[in-house]
Amino acid sequence: MEVIRKTEVDLRVPPNFDDYVATRESFSWARMADGLAMPGGGCNIAYCAVDRYVGGPTGTKTALRFLGDTGPDGNITARDVSYDELATLARRFTNVLRRLGIGKGDTMFVVSPRIPELYAGVLGALRNGTVVSPLFSAFGPEPIAMRVQLGGGSVLLTTSSLYRRKIAKMREEMPTLRHVLLVDESGAPTDIPGTEDLRALMADASDDAEITETTADDPALLHFTSGTTGTPKGAVHVHGAVTTHYTTGLYALDLHPDDTFWCTADPGWVTGTSYGIIAPLLHGVTSIIDPADFDAERWYRILEQQDVSVWYTAPTAIRMLMKAGGELAHKFPRPQLRFIASVGEPLNPEAVIWGRDVLGLPIHDNWWQTETGGIMIANTPAFDIKPGSMGRPLPGIDAVLVRHNPDHSVTVIDTPGEEGELALRVGWPSMFRAYLNNEERYRKCFVDDLYLSGDLAKRDEDGYFWFVGRADDVIKSAGHLIGPFEVENVLMEHPAVAEAAVIGKPDPIVGEVVKAFVTLRRGYEFDDKLRRELLGHARKKLGAAVAPKEIDYAAHLPHTRSGKIMRRLLKARELGLPEGDISTLESGS
Ligand code: ATP
Ligand code: MG
């Protein structure tokens, strides 16, 4: 198997595996947390992200660069907000909340495109001890109302047009909501009854606002899971998570203060908050914020024009870039780009190698979940990449594979190559502390001191973890357990296939048969010949027992807004069953 050797750059990560292991062994969360504590004790994410820089050298640096439209000359307009400006806006926002009587332990929901007020609002609320729950602004009225209701939101930050389109008519469904703060997209004042004009309140507010006393155990964020396997769960995170955000920014993303970092995720998904807001600020880097939807040419332009050095994106985006072709990639040089990472879905080996060959850098896959709050397993810049592997556990993370026993206990698997459920030993600071209103579901995630992730994986003799599939998606066919990822990878090796999704279809004889759906790359058409070719290709690589029996063409595969393929929806549609909770489905899927 091909191994991609480590990159030679100035690394924060120990540059060889032995040193890496030594770092892991001497690593201490307590020491990391000490370095982030507030001067008088206590812990607050926003203190670490903005307050501590005020008046220092980082204060004048650009914290956030908001991109605008592309001009006729091809240049994208930008608006910079410095660390000091962001801190001032956050303090004003804290005062706005205080004036409205919103305090520690209240919950603020955010339904907003990526505008400065969103970032100031999140940080200002965290400073106030107010729990923040960012939602996708593309959600429809029901998913928004349902989440606000579930979370008992007291305040909602949104824009005038989103309010008119999605929230006004649902207001009665959200009885806990005491205040709605509106930003008008055009910059004009707003006076919609039952709402407040945030910009006017901010202009009136004082610049001074002491930070509310919070500890590492106080709740800070409420994130809903992607809803890939069922109804989204609300995961509660605490201020102490900041230690994970900082540590993973260091070891998994290799952030240096002079980096320009672009995380493409929306803050409505945990990645867009942990790494789209918090981690880059903790490292004093400049973040690129692009509010526009995916567009291959625009993305290449951003990488080029903004001198992005570290880029964090998702497999679907990479596959869409692959679909758009290499020619476009070569049109825009990227001399500053030194590190690319990906998360959210299994990253097929083809995509890693395409990165190396076409973008000039391999793509570093990493694994984590809403529940873990931050990156847990990663291909760091320090060691060789095995394409198709999620990498190794980061310092401070004890990841194991377990086998379930009939008496509900689990046994840790020691043998390399054996498949099991991926579990994490409790003790990392960003572990979720509850599923909202679902204590029983939360309890079920733990056995002894292990958190069970619901994902199946294997570990090889070098300590690399390989994703097999979600426990819910595993297909049982004629006595074989088939991980969808393995089958999808093989299909994506074929030059015609852009993306593949595999499901199990009930079958009276073998239990389930493997059925695949594929989208195609440019220049290919789906016909019987291609179908036969794909079936043959899969059978040759996987053997008859594992290869799909059926392959269908799909113009698009259904994705969640966080970019994951919703296999359960493909299955429901295939079997003519109810679609279930599709609140997180991307429109047009
Ligand atoms: P739900 O829990 O509501 O079904 P979800 O699990 O998709 O949704 P997230 O927390 O956003 O919600 O996603 C985490 C999951 O995404 C992981 O459990 C895993 O299945 C998948 N995932 C994330 N990163 C990777 C990766 N690098 N390789 C493979 N799978 C990944
Ligand atoms: Mg999940």
From TrEMBL:
Enzyme Commission (EC) number: 6.2.1.1
Top-level taxon in the UniProt lineage: Bacteria
Molecular function GO terms recorded: acetate-CoA ligase activity; ATP binding
SUPFAM superfamilies, A to Z: Acetyl-CoA synthetase-like
Principal EC category: ligase
Stretches assigned to the AMP-binding enzyme C-terminal domain: 486-564
GO biological process: acetyl-CoA biosynthetic process
InterPro entries in UniProt: AMP-bd_C (IPR025110), AMP-bd_C_sf (IPR045851), AMP-binding_CS (IPR020845), AMP-dep_synth/lig_dom (IPR000873), ANL_N_sf (IPR042099)
Keywords associated with the record: Acetylation, ATP-binding, Ligase, Nucleotide-binding
Any single GO CC term annotated in Swiss-Prot or TrEMBL for this entry: cytosol
Domain AMP-dependent synthetase/ligase: 78-436
Record Pfam families: AMP-binding, AMP-binding_C
Gene3D superfamilies: 3.30.300.30, N-terminal domain of ligase-like
Name of the protein in question: acetate--CoA ligase
